[in-house]
């Protein structure tokens, strides 16, 4: 395995803005190679200025999308699809500026869209996701990029909950730019085995997010980290393992991801101890 370690700026702040680059010196000093940038609003980000800060502190960037109700490729209204296409175009522009290799996230549907629907409606929404993501895959390929498509747990999506479902989705999309990312938090809810889930992703796995089963500091909860490690070794994973956790200080973010209490005594402590644990586990 050849692993770099990253961390999401959601650990400290939301939304990411140009001013959020003030986090970069501390992230680098902690020992991280990569900063994961969740882009909620591209309009508040000066891409060249962020690139300058990345270069200054020797950090690479991973770009994660934020997909709310207005960015839903399975919506019945095609104008909503266009809003999502436009947003994904903006992410691709950032990726070009920041020299990122892919854009990541649950881009098939809106986060929080979790309902029990009829088989016919499920089929329609699946086909919309396939058709629209095939278009996005081609656009990504035209820009030298890939898509890292993320399964979410059942409370956040009713479309793609497991790695097997993500694998079926990218098989149906049938485009070489469509790939998979996994998130240990979601896997801890939905998968019978972390190792088996990662093996299912196989060569299509291009990004990994981690936190504990309760979304806190890696190594402080119930996650089966040895199963996680065996899975990554089995697929000979080369890429980023990134901590995605959240601050409860931002009300909008806390509401979106259901963070009703602090997940660590100190966010810097979460980042520092989490990195130490990941290095000991995966290196």
TrEMBL record:
InterPro entries in UniProt: IolE/XylAMocC-like, Xyl_isomerase-like_sf, Xyl_isomerase-like_TIM-brl
One Pfam family matching this protein: AP_endonuc_2
UniProt keyword annotation of Repeat present: no
Record keywords, A-Z: Isomerase
GO molecular function terms listed in the Swiss-Prot or TrEMBL record: isomerase activity
Domain Xylose isomerase-like TIM barrel: 26-279
Protein name in UniProt: Sugar phosphate isomerase/epimerase
Species of the source: Fodinibius salsisoli
